[in-house]
Design a protein that fits this description.
Layout: H1 14-25, H2 32-62, H3 67-96, H4 106-122, H5 126-146, E1 149-152, E2 155-158, H6 159-162, H7 171-187, H8 189-209, H9 215-222, H10 230-259, H11 285-299, H12 301-312, E3 316-319, E4 329-333, E5 338-345, H13 349-368, H14 374-377, H15 381-394, H16 406-439, H17 445-459, H18 470-474, H19 481-485, H20 491-509, H21 511-522, H22 530-536, H23 545-559
Parallel strand pairs: 3-5
Antiparallel strand pairs: 1-2, 4-5
Cofactor: Zn(2+)
Keywords: Hydrolase, Metal-binding, Metalloprotease, Protease, Zinc
Pfam families: Peptidase_M3 (PF01432)
């Protein structure tokens, strides 16, 4: 098993963990100095726990078929996390009951106090067991999806490897690849539908325990979403339907014309034009790492150095293989002062972008490490994804490292800009779907699929003809792990992408100044509000009608539509 993380003590010995928590609870909080000692010691324990539990989570996702990795991960979920949640609530109570709370410097601690008051209001001890059950169901989802493979001309391929054929110039081959990919999920539909049904009921109970009628409102408070509301998300969906969908349809129509097709079918969306070869920025994992390091060095030498450190620290797990969970992520190892990057590359163009994206998170983690409190390094996804999505755009001028051929380089840049625009409706479909799920917790599985297809029709391009393949369309959500593992985590991608487009627009005109502000914003972590973080980056936390219209006008110009 991997040894990329530190284990200062064994999480099997829960009595020692509880003793550490009780030491914290015994610290007197009668002066500002004592409160600050308390906060720092609490942070130190939080760092130790994050290091170990992140390590165990990565090992489980890397080796789904390992009984030991599963045992350790489930021990964390079922035994350790309930202890952490119980004592976190007690620590909140102790901190917030200190008679010197009002004497803490507002600028340094005001936002922390606000967040802890929100957490205190939300906590219910009965919810701890519900979350254990919730985590078990999410684990079961990963066991189902991590084992998915398909036969391709006698070879067993993982689904990320199969997706490589979606670009084939051979239309029949594209259709065959997409058929195998979609049918793999449809074969698992019954257990995955049942998992979600159970999750919805558990989550509804959590909301009711805390006095909420709607799980969405519960999660907005849990995520400290002080800067926007569920109603804002619904308005954003309407703005995307009005201003983004028409741009996506222009992109699809241009692509259809380039392919010379009378109809534009689901398996045509990623196809390359006749006479073109699929974009292939690297052949091996080593080449992916070395080229990405070179790109990052050209943008900022400290960025490239970080990737080199991850390689030396054995914290890169990049290849797709059987028994490995799908998806990609970057997590912090606070004791090791490193990040770990997990992904599933299959030698595709998108894999290069995934590594750059995850390096954005790594850079964010590095910029935050000067913050003394773990609470300030635990950033909301709206700023975390701003870090990663902006990195994709900042590196565009240096993609000739991957593509020495000028025509391929231009194709790669256009594909990236197109993918940003085409993603926005997808992101809003998934967010709107989750709002509907929890506003109607007693819906049937048939109603669930019908609603997903309805949202796709409203928000996504209608250039694509799904006739005869409606089942594929309505079950696409089965592959969205966020719905199962981290509910209501998807709107952040959309909000952050709007911020990243603002930064890209500025970067094209003033690259050095934009990069400077970007790094300053990342260094704030969660010590202040999202609105202030975006302001520090020189952009607006704004997804109004005017902002969406303006950004789409900019992107249309960039894409020469």
């Amino acid at each position: 098993m991997a040894t990329f993380y530190k284990e200062p003590f064994s999480l099997e010995e829960t009595d020692k963990l509880e003793a550490r928590y009780n030491e914290l609870l015994n610290i007197p909080l009668d002066s500002v100095e004592q409160v600050e000692v308390f906060l720092q010691k609490e942070s130190d324990l939080s760092d130790e726990l994050e290091e170990m539990m992140t390590g165990h989570y990565v090992e489980f996702n890397s080796y789904n078929d390992s009984k030991e990795a599963k045992r350790v991960f489930e021990h964390d979920q079922q035994v350790v996390l309930p202890i952490v949640k119980k004592y976190s609530a007690l620590l909140d109570d102790a901190f917030l009951s200190s008679n010197v709370l009002a004497q803490l410097p507002e600028e340094q601690y005001g936002y922390l106090v606000k967040r802890r008051k929100s957490a205190q209001a939300l906590f219910q001890e009965a919810t701890i067991q519900l979350e254990v059950e919730e985590d078990q169901l999410a684990t079961t989802y990963f066991e189902h999806t991590g084992s998915m493979t398909a036969d391709w001309d006698g070879k067993e391929l993982t689904l990320p490897q199969l997706a490589a054929y979606a670009e084939s110039v051979d239309r029949d081959q594209r259709k065959r690849a997409m058929t195998k990919l979609r049918e793999a999920y449809i074969k698992k539909e019954e257990p995955l539908q049942e998992i979600l049904s159970e999750l919805i009921q558990l989550r509804q109970k959590k909301a009711e325990n805390a006095g909420f009628t709607n799980f969405a409102d519960y999660m907005f408070q849990k995520y400290d979403r002080f800067d926007y509301t569920p109603a804002d998300c619904k308005r954003l969906a309407e703005n995307v339907a009005t201003y983004v969908k028409p741009v996506v349809e222009k992109i699809h129509k241009r692509h259809q014309q380039g392919l010379g097709l009378d109809s534009y079918l689901p398996w045509d969306r990623s196809a390359i034009k006749p006479g073109e070869e699929p974009l292939k920025p690297f052949d091996t994992t080593e080449e992916l790492i070395s080229k990405t390091e070179k790109v990052l060095n050209q943008l900022d030498p400290s960025f490239g150095q970080l990737l080199s450190q991850l390689k030396e620290g054995n914290t890169l797990d990049l290849e797709s293989r059987k028994g490995k969970s799908p998806g990609g992520f970057c997590s912090s190892l606070p004791l090791s002062q490193l990040s770990v990057i997990f992904m599933n590359h299959a030698n595709q163009h998108e894999d290069m972008i995934t590594l750059i994206h995850e390096m954005g998170h790594c850079i964010h983690n590095d910029r935050k490490k000067e913050l003394s409190l773990a609470a300030y390094r635990d950033t909301p996804m709206e700023s975390s994804e701003l870090a990663s999505m902006s990195m994709e755009l900042f590196t565009l001028p240096f993609w000739d490292v991957y593509y020495e051929n000028q025509e391929e380089y231009e194709r790669a840049k256009q594909k990236q800009l197109e993918s940003i625009v085409t993603f926005l409706p997808i992101g809003m479909v998934i967010d709107s779907f989750q709002h509907w799920l929890y506003e109607h917790p007693n819906h049937s599985k048939e109603e669930r699929n019908k609603k997903y297809r309805e949202l796709l029709t409203k928000l996504q391009s209608n250039v694509v003809d799904w006739s005869g393949y409606e089942k594929w369309q309505e079950t696409q959500w089965l592959s969205v792990l966020h719905i199962f593992e981290v509910p209501f985590y998807y709107i952040e991608y959309v909000i952050a992408q709007l911020g990243a487009m603002q930064l890209y627009k500025q970067f094209k005109e003033h690259p050095e100044e934009t990069l400077k502000r970007y790094k300053a914003a990342l260094a704030l972590g969660s010590s202040t509000s999202l609105t202030d973080v975006y302001k520090a980056a020189g952009i607006a936390f704004d997804f109004s009608e005017d902002m969406i219209r303006s950004l789409m006008a900019f992107m249309e110009k960039e894409l020469k539509l």
